[in-house]
Amino acid sequence: MAVIPNQINHVQVQFGLNVHNSVDSNLLAFLLQTIRPNIVDGPTLSSIYISSLKDQHNLPSRHMQGAGKAVDISRINGMKMSMHYPGDPAVKQITDALQLAFENWEGRRENFGPLFKRKHGQSYPVSGHADHIHFSVD
């Protein structure tokens, strides 16, 4: 079991109420490699808010499989995606950059968010996810 720290590459990681920070080691590896202040040219990523890990879900959700194979990120720099995407340029650029970075990650499974919804790199019709990014690994 891997544990998401409170800070990744100088980016503060905040957790929702009752969110347990243990996850699959592949998911943690992606976060450690990707979450960084300079994910895009221009705006700086200073914090993310993880609204769900291995909680608030039921099987067969990837959140509940194994050590926790999915993460939901719903805020960028303290700003809720539900209120600030796409209206705030920094939130949009950083959110889009995170989704694009995940598309290049070997072992990715689900990449659902406001930019697009893909499963194994292919468009996937799933409802929701306009207010958060959902990443899961195989």
How would you portray this structure in words?
This protein has about 140 residues and is of the alpha+beta class. It is about 20% helix and about 30% strand. It contains 3 helices and 11 strands. It has helices at about 25-35, 80-85, 90-105; strands at about 1-5, 5-10, 10-15, 20-25, 45-50, 70-75, 80, 110, 115-120, 120-125, 135. The strands form 2 sheets. Strands 2, 3, 5, 6, 7, 8, 9, 10 and 11 form a 9-stranded mixed sheet that branches. The protein has a two-stranded antiparallel ribbon with strand order 1-4. Strand 8 (about 110) and strand 9 (about 115-120) form a beta hairpin. The protein is globular and about 35 Å long. The relative contact order is 0.18. The model has no long low-confidence stretch (mean pLDDT about 90).
What's the alpha carbon Rg, rounded to whole Å?
14 Å
Number of strands: 11
Q: What class would the helix/strand composition place it in?
A: alpha+beta
**What is the straight-line distance between the termini?**
15 Å
Uncertain parts: none
Order of helices and strands: EEEEHEEEHHEEEE
Alpha plus pi helix count: 3
Portion of residues in helices? 10-25%
What does the average pLDDT come to?
89
Shape: globular
How does the major sheet shape up?
9 strands, mixed
Strand content: 25-35%
